[in-house]
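tokens incoming
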């Protein structure tokens, strides 16, 4: 069961996750198979790590975590809807956080490559 923000309970529906991912990935060069695999991964994580009831907020956060490593544009699209940015500054903050994360990952790769060359 999914516990909504207002306390209502609904049956978990994988299609809701899939539809959100499809909208986020619209006009991106991402196959339907990859999108479906991502939805499957989210569902698997929910079923393996959650109790009988899972807050809808946790589902949204899990989707965002997966999208961060999947596609930057799809992540920002999903985040903008999920987090309901009130203004451009919220959107920019999310972009800055994503850029900082990508830079950190690139720095780690560069450091690892240096270590291999030595």
């Amino acid at each position: 069961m999914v516990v909504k923000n207002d306390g209502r309970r609904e049956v978990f529906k994988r299609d809701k996750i899939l539809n959100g991912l499809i909208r986020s990935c619209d006009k991106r060069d991402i196959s339907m198979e990859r999108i479906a695999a991502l939805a499957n991964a989210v569902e698997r994580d929910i079923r393996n790590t959650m109790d009988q009831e899972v807050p809808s907020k946790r589902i949204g956060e899990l989707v965002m975590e997966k999208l961060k490593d999947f596609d930057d544009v799809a992540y920002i699209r999903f985040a903008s809807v999920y987090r309901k940015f009130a203004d451009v500054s919220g959107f920019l903050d999310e972009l800055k956080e994503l850029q900082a994360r990508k830079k950190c990952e690139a720095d780690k790769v560069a450091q690892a490559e240096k270590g291999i060359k030595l």
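note: The longest strand covers residues 2-3.
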